[in-house]
Design a protein that fits this description.
Layout (H helix, E strand, L loop, with lengths): L10 H29 L4 H4 L3 E3 L5 E4 L10 E4 L10 E2 L5 E3 L4 E5 L10 E4 L9 E3 L5 E3 L4 E5 L10 E4 L9 E3 L30
Antiparallel strand pairs: 1-12, 2-3, 4-5, 5-6, 6-7, 8-9, 9-10, 10-11
C-alpha cells in the first residue's frame, strides 16, 4: 500500500481561515468603494442654476451681486454671476452664493409687497419656499408667491411676495446650470447677456 501523503503543515488552519480571509477581503473592497464614493463632490455650480422670470425672460438676481445681508432681489439680464445661481435644498431653502445666503422674506413679513432679500440661513419659515407645478414659488411662512413688483420686466424690477394670482410675473423656470457669460462689453455694475432657456427646463 503506498504511503499516505503527508499533511501540509498549517493546511487545515489555512482552510479554516479561508472564509474569514474572503470576508475581510470583501469588507476591505467595500470600504474602498465607500471611501471613494464619499470623496466625490458636486461642484456648487452643478447644483445651482439661474431662476428665470417667465414674463420677463430675465434672471432672479441679488442686487449688485452683493452677498451682504439684507440685499434685495431684483430682475436682471442673465449673466452667470454667483448672485444669479440659486439652489433649492431638501430643507425648502432657496440658497445663493454657493449656499452661504438664503432667500428671505424681510422681517418674516406676510403682507403683500414685503421685500424679498438675502440673509444668513436660520431655518425659519420666512426662508422656506415651495416649488409648484404651475411654475410659481410660494413663500411658506406667508403662503404668498414670489412676485415681480408691478409686473415689471425691466432690469432692476424689485422682487416681493404677493397674493398668488397666476400672472406671468409670478411664474419662474430654472436652467440646468450656470447662465451664459456676460457680453464682452458688459461691466460688473451693468451686466449684459440674455437668457434663452429651452422649454424642457421649465417646471411642469
Amino acid at each position: 500500500m503506498p504511503p499516505s501523503p503527508l499533511p501540509t503543515p498549517g493546511g487545515a488552519a489555512r482552510r479554516r481561515r479561508s472564509p474569514v480571509a474572503v470576508t475581510v477581503g470583501v469588507i476591505s473592497t467595500l470600504a474602498t468603494v465607500l471611501a471613494t464614493a464619499l470623496s466625490w463632490s458636486v461642484p456648487a455650480s452643478a447644483a445651482a442654476a439661474p431662476v428665470v422670470g417667465t414674463g420677463s425672460g430675465r434672471c432672479l438676481s441679488v442686487a449688485n451681486n452683493s452677498d451682504a445681508q439684507g440685499t434685495g432681489l431684483q430682475l436682471w439680464d442673465c449673466n452667470g454671476q454667483s448672485g444669479q445661481q440659486f439652489e433649492f435644498t431638501s430643507a425648502g431653502e432657496l440658497r445663493v452664493f454657493n449656499g452661504s445666503r438664503c432667500v428671505d422674506v424681510n422681517g418674516a413679513g406676510t403682507a403683500d409687497g414685503t421685500a424679498v432679500i438675502i440673509w444668513s440661513c436660520n431655518g425659519q419659515n420666512n426662508q422656506k419656499w415651495r416649488l409648484n407645478s404651475d411654475g410659481s414659488i410660494t413663500a411658506v411662512g406667508a403662503n404668498k408667491c414670489l412676485d415681480v413688483s408691478g409686473a415689471g420686466t425691466a432690469n432692476g424690477s424689485k422682487i416681493q411676495i404677493w397674493s398668488c394670482h397666476g400672472g406671468s410675473n409670478q411664474k419662474w423656470s430654472t436652467g440646468g446650470g450656470p447662465g451664459p457669460s456676460p457680453s464682452p462689453s458688459a461691466s460688473p455694475s451693468s451686466p449684459g447677456g440674455t437668457c434663452d432657456l429651452p422649454s424642457s427646463y421649465r417646471w411642469t
